[in-house]
Design brief:
With 475 residues, the protein is an alpha+beta fold. The chain has a domain of 168 residues: Cathepsin B, Chain A (Alpha-Beta Complex), CATH 3.90.70. It has 14 helices and 16 strands. Strands 2-15-14-13-12-16-9 form a 7-stranded antiparallel sheet, with helices on both faces. A 3-stranded antiparallel sheet has the order 3-5-4. The chain has a two-stranded antiparallel sheet with strand order 1-8. Helix 2 packs parallel to helix 4, helix 3 runs antiparallel to helix 4 and helix 6 crosses helix 7. The radius of gyration is 22 Å and the shape is globular.
């Protein structure tokens, strides 16, 4: 019997940058300016200073202890600083002052310092330098806003080596899907990793120890990390969770010390290390770091059913026929695993099969309240935004992260956001009236939302998944 694959959310993969955003970005220092924000390539003196953001908006772990009292941690700090260059030493001091260095909100209870110590003192994967990886990780922890999805270029002399390597993979029948021997397809101008980069920022912002743990693991000789997740945070029952993990081709193992949890083993794709090794020695200003190359690959690979290719920035897998980015269903799965918290990917816009906006599933105030309640609970919100032309036809989509909010004297709300594709290493502020109409979906903590029972709202993607399973079983 012929198999029929149902595609979930294939009409809307949220992946690429929008050339001319319809909303106005505002540097959070000045609510009056709507001019383009200075880019990182501008002289440092001309850039606006990062705003003072209270700890309930971002950078959890601020205002911790300024000194290290534990002898073992003090010894590790000395060894890390001795391996660091002058710039990294300065950043380490800042991490210590803000409490982020001794943060222990990681999956295994290790501190940020524990994992930076691993990076500094234990072997890294071939082609990766300890000092470079340490510098990158520390910089991204001190200022997560520098995390970008912009791919680096591949030097001409390396292209031939890559082609020969890919040719060998093909000859040995172990090449990943989408393998090509055309170097022009390695030239990624507009990255589709915004969901993964947003997830990366979210972890660096909220859980510095976890970020350092993942960075240490992915740059090790065995590049992968293990994420322990509670079954109920993936799906309502253990059976449903295991079925979902199977459909996403996730590598898992059952821990011996807990029946409530599952260990998910997350790996970058087969070509990710090539990108990381190039960035290790050829990173230009504004490009991804080696750490970002591996972390974004690992997240894309987990979300796209182990079917991502870092060389071409293309994804495959059965939940989408669009080979760029992730669908909201896949992004929601990624978030639930990485945050170890049940998330609901609420669909706010009603877009028909012809890619035209028909209306909204929630009014402006309800959508605004979802964001505000999520922020109040301590959760950043990764949102998918959609741009339309004058005929309400979809022209592009993108993922950004909402990290805070502000009210003016008239009570008007603006949201503080991070965009990993705006060439700006700081937060931006977008008025609620400009942002809300653009939101297609958002990952909202399940505990905060009681969804309407209408099929097209919120759970439509889960209905689609259920139908996919029925079709698959029938086939």
């Amino acid at each position: 019997m012929q198999s029929h694959n149902m595609v979930i959310g294939a009409i809307n993969n949220y992946n690429y940058s929008i050339t001319n955003p319809g909303y106005s970005k505002k540097d959070v220092n000045s609510a009056a300016t709507t001019a383009p924000i200075n880019t990182p390539s501008a002289p440092a003196a001309s850039q606006p200073q990062s705003p003072s953001i209270s700890k309930d908006l971002a950078f959890s772990g601020l205002f911790g202890s300024p000194s290290i009292k534990d002898p073992e941690q003090k010894k590790k700090y000395q060894e890390v600083t001795s391996a660091a260059d002058p710039e990294t030493k300065k950043h380490l001091k800042n991490l210590l002052k803000t409490g982020r260095l001794l943060n222990k909100d990681s999956n295994d209870g290790s501190t940020t310092l524990d994992n930076l110590h691993l990076i500094a003192t234990t072997p890294r994967h071939g082609g990766l330098d300890n000092r470079v990886i340490l510098r990158e990780t520390v910089k991204e922890l001190e200022n997560p806003f520098i995390i970008t999805q912009k791919f680096g270029d591949i030097p001409q002399e390396i292209n031939n080596q890559i082609v020969n390597y890919e040719k060998q993979l093909k000859e040995n029948n172990i090449a990943p899907e989408g393998t090509t021997l055309n170097p022009k397809e390695y030239d990624v101008e507009y990255s589709s990793t915004c969901p993964a980069a947003s997830m990366q920022f979210n972890i660096a912002d909220k859980k510095p120890a976890e970020y350092a743990r993942i960075a240490a693991s992915l740059t090790s000789p065995d590049p992968k990390f293990t994420k322990r997740v509670n079954f109920k945070n993936i799906a309502p029952s253990m059976v449903e969770s295991l079925e979902l993990l199977k459909d996403f081709k996730a590598q898992i193992r059952k821990p011996a010390d807990s029946w409530e949890h599952i260990d998910v083993i997350v790996k970058p794709d087969q070509n990710a290390m090539i990108r990381a090794q190039i960035q290790n020695s050829h990173q230009d200003p504004g490009e991804r770091s080696s750490v970002s190359s591996l972390m974004q690959s690992a997240f894309m690979n987990l979300g796209s059913q182990d079917a991502y290719n870092s060389l071409t920035d293309k994804r495959y897998g059965k939940f989408s026929t669009n080979n760029e980015g992730l669908t909201e269903f896949e992004k929601n799965f990624l978030e639930s695993i990485m945050d170890d918290e049940p998330k609901i990917s609420i669909v706010y816009q009603n877009i028909d099969d012809d890619q035209k906006l028909q209306g909204y599933n929630f009014d402006h105030k309800a959508t605004e309240q979802h964001l505000l309640e999520s922020l109040k609970s301590g959760s950043n919100v990764i949102i998918g935004i959609i741009e339309f032309d004058e005929n309400k036809q979809v022209i592009g989509g993108h993922e950004i992260t909402v990290i805070g909010s502000k009210k003016d004297m008239k009570g008007n709300v603006s949201f503080i956001c991070n965009d990993t594709d705006d060439n700006y290493s700081g937060p931006i502020m977008i008025r609620s009236e400009d942002l809300i109409p653009k939101i297609h979906h958002a990952g909202i903590p399940a505990k905060l939302v009681e969804l309407p029972k209408e099929k097209e709202v919120g759970y439509q993607i889960l209905d689609d998944y259920s139908n996919f399973k029925k079709t698959e079983k029938a086939a």
